[in-house]
Each structure stands twice: as C-alpha cells, then as structure tokens.
Amino acid sequence: MNTFIVRRLLQAIPTLFGISLLSFMLMLATPGDPITTITFNPNSNPETTMILRRQLGLDQPPLVQYLYWLIGNDWRKIDIDGDGEGDVMGTRQGVLRGDFGQSIGLKRPVLSIIVERIPATLLLAIPAVLMGYLVGMIIGLLAAIWHNSWFDQLSRVLSVFGSAVPAFWLGLILIIVFSVNLGWLPMGGMRDITKPDVGFNVAESLPYMVMPVLVLALGIIAVVSRYTRIQVLEVLGQDYVRTAYSKGLSNFYVNVYHVARNALIPIITLLGGAIGALLGGAVIIEQVFSWPGLGRLVIEAVSQRDYPLIMGSVVISGFMYIVGLLFSDILYGLIDPRIRLS
Amino acid sequence: MAEGFVNNIGDTTLPVAQINELPKTSRSLWGEAFKNLRRDKLTMFALSVLILLTLACVFAPPLLENVLELNGNRTDVVNRYKLPGYKNNILGTDQLGRDQLVRLLYGGRVSLGVAYGASIMSITIGLIVGMFAGYYGGIVDDIVSWFISTLSSIPSIFLLILVSVVFAPTAEVLIILLGLLGWVGTCRLVRGEVLSLKEREFVVAARALGAPPLRIFVQHLFPNVVSLVIISLTIDAGTLILIESGLSYLGLGVRPPTPSWGNMLAESRKFLTTGTHLIIWPGVMIIIVVLCFFLIGDGLRDAVDPRKHK
What we know:
Chain A is mostly helical. Chain A has helices at 2-29, 34-39, 46-55, 62-71, 110-145, 150-164, 167-181, 202-236, 239-246, 251-264, 268-288, 294-303, 307-335, 337-341; strands spanning 77-78, 88-89.
C-alpha cells in the first residue's frame, strides 16, 4: 500500500510542473507591461522604472524569470544599477516555498489572500458534494433496482435535465422565486451586512447557503445518479448476485451487501473530479449569489488585471484538484485491493 | 442406388426455400445502428427539434422581420419590457424595446455557431492527436498524456477566463479558443481505443502487408473510432453551449450588441423585477438545445452498442 501511495505521489509531480509552466506562459502572453500596471504613473522617470524592472527580474530572459518565479531569487545578488555586477540579494522565495508574489490591486501577499477565501468556497463545496453524492447514489441505486419502472424513467429524465440546465440560470430563477417574490431567503452574500462582522460563522451563513448549495448539488446529483445507475445495473447481472439470490437471501440483504457495496466503489473515482468541477462551477455560482469565495476572487482579479493573483489562483486550484484526485485514488486503492496490484 | 440418393436430395425443397428467406446482403454495423436509431423515437424527436431550431436560426430572422415588420436592432424606448403577445412582438420586448424573438433567433446563430464550430474543431484535434498518441506510443504518448493531465487539472473555466481576458473574443475567436481547450476528453477516449485496436489482428495484418501509417489511420483505425467521436461531438456541443453562456454571464463571452443566448441572459439579470420574461426565454432555448444534444448523444451510444439490441 505504501509503494502504491508513493508511486501516485511521484506521478503527480510532472502534472504540477506542467501547471506551473502553463500558468507562467499565460502570464508572459498577457498584453501590457507589468511595470505600468504596478506604478500606474505616466510621469514616472525612465531611470526608476528601469531599476524597478531589474529589481523584479523583468529584464531577464523568460527562462530565468520562470526560475525566479518558481524557486525564488534570494540565493543570488541582483544587479540593480545596470553595471553588470550584483548589488543586493534577491528577496523573492518562489512558488515552491509558498511565495506567489504580491497582489497588484490589494498590495498583499497572494497566498494569504487566497487562503482567506478558501473556507468560504469549502462552505459551499462540502455540503454540495455530500448532498449531491448521498442523494445521487440513493436515486441511482433505486432506479437500477426498479429497472424500467416509472421511477427509473423519471430519474433518467431528471438526470439529463439536471445536466442541461445552466446552473446560473437556475440560480437566477431561484432568486426571483424565493428572494424577490416570496422573500424567504436572502438574495446573495454570506452574512447580514447590517450587523457587525463577527468573522466566519456557519450558523449565520446558513440561510445564505441554501440556494447556492442546492444549485451546485443538483449538478452533482445528475452526474452521480446516472453513473450509479449504470454501475448497479452492471453488478446486478453478475453471477455472484444470482448466487446470493439462489442461496435464499432476502432482497434487501443482496441489494445492500452484494450489489451496493460492489457498485459504489467506482463512484469514489468521481470524487476527485467533482472537487475540481466544483472549483470551476463555483466561479459562476459564487458570482450569481455574490458569495465571497475563491471563484469570486478570480473574477475580481481578472477585472482588475491582477496577474499575480490570477496565476496564484490557477496554480492553487490546480494543486487542490490534483490533491483531490490523489485522495480519491488512494481511497480507491484502500477499498479495492485489485487497483493497488495492477 | 447412388443415383436415387442424389435424386432424393434434389427432390427436397426445404433447404432451398430457407436460403431464399435469408436477406440478400448482411447489414453492416452502420446499417444496424441507423436502423436502431430510426426506431428510437426520443432521439429522432430530439434530432428533428435541433435541426428545426438550427434552420430557424439561420433562415427565420430576415423572414420574420419582413413579415412582422420588426427590426431586431431597432430600439423603441416607449415599448420597453412588453410582455409576450404585445402587438407583433410574440415573445415581448427587452430593456431597449427590441423584439425578443428576433433577437433570440439571431442569438441562436452565434450560440449554435460557436457550439458547432468549436465542437468540430476540438473533435478534429482530439481525434488526430489521440490516434497519433495511441498508435505510436512511447515518448509521443508520454508527452501527450502529460499535456492532457496538466490541462485537465486546471478547472477549465479558469483557463477560459484567463484566455478570454487576453483575447477579448468575438464569436470567431471564441470558436478557436474553445476548440483549442476542449479536445482533451475526445483525445483521451480515442487514445484508449487505439491503444487496444492497434494490437488487433486486422491492424497487425495491415502493417505486415506494408501499409503506410496514413493508410492504417484512415482505413483501419478511423472507422473503428468514428462512432465514439460522433457521440462525443454531440455531448461536447451541448456542453459548449453551457460554457458559452457561462462565460457570457461573467461578461467574457461574445460582447453585446451582438446577441448570443449567454449574453442576453447576462443582460437580463439586471432587470430581475422589471423584465422577468427576459430571463426565461434565453434560458429555455439553452435548455432545449442542450437537452437535444445530450439525448442525441445518448441515443447514438445506444444505437451503436450491439449489446443493447440482442
């Protein structure tokens, strides 16, 4: 089992490297000079601009810039006055040591800004994943057991429908019905802004969570119920299920101990993907419900052309997705020994 | 004795009659799939709805404008937010008094065009790269697999947001961007299929006969993956409609005044209370079209799966 985990961890390294390379290249491709974005001063002295450029390492070739970005430049002296000799030690620590640079708009380290937003995103993602998986698996299981019944047909229709509805449209409709017309739920945000801010408070955020969690969960239910149904139908045709019935076991016992246990294992593999999809899907839903999470941060960063913040979000979300995949792979290996050995 | 035996066989008419009852030619996989598809009422219905809608978006707007004497671009400030059925405006008017139906159909040109164009482009790239990676294996496959796993571990909406900011897309640019970012899924499917196909006897035999790689790709591998590709084409097209609308909602898709279903929806959210009907129609159009694409994809999958029709 340990070698399996180590092998999986090693396999993740090239992907992480790829993500860092891709986001760096995108950063290079973006139009506009970073210096003008930072100083934002048309009267700035060309001499000082040049010094700033050297300080930030922007005079270096792309490969060196990438190295500085990745591992930092505090191990060598930086030439600031342009005479070809190093003057002061660099200050950057690099992405590998958690230094994603400073946000242009907020003038604070990117990492701390992102870390602040993660709890809010998880506050939506975790209930949505739990609810989506639980309801989706139950619907899929029942649909397969009652194959070709009205419930099965209904579940199939709902599953296709659930994946065809744009999530943000559903969000808008919910807002119109429950906030504008009925006035039952708040339209957006995470807490009542007329009251003093007591920080992160789940109980206070609960009414604000209902609609976004519901919309996110619906998308997951559509996928999970469909996948579960296919898996269970596959298992129901296996010899060991027939054997179990012929031993005289009850329907309930066979369904729970033989069918469900075997059919639900592969569904774990969806979990890693679900986390990534949620980070992505949550971008739009967070925007619809003005939820102050990671997705909203990306939109804000994009509208302000805050490139260090954008790059940091891309790398960290990619990292979280890979961790999610690793987690589900390892869980899968723990539950099903066949995966470990292959 | 021997003659009588022969005559005896010749006299029996039974085997001859049986042979006549058999079909003259056996049906190919495609013939079989097409027959299955025609029997599948739901899929045929979805297909006809989609074709009708596409034709309507391509041909109807000019026709409608002439018959109903409307103009999709002419603003009419007096008649804003009119409900469906007001005068000639079958679906009502929007915040600038423009006819909603005409704009919906014009928007469909953009949304459907982006979906068709980008899905065809991403499928083509995915097919070619997937066949190469699967067939040649080794270092080519390693590089492609690495690229795929990298690209798919960044949430695609992040990538799209980034790229949209850099390029500020028109409809044509959006097709290229979505096409360039969307081929990963198809590529993975095709690669997996080709990996197993290339070990099969007919491919090995073709190689042994000295067939060049291009011939093996076109004659032997392509026909075996094409059903897979068509299925993912329809699913992709549906997903692309959703992505286009999501990007537009964030203000990063096709820019107004060019209408697309996504940006019509994005604009309508500003009028939650004054023009509720403006939110309904583009959403309904998106749902109908995406539903059609998904149902067709499902139907095609069933139609080419021989296990489903024993």
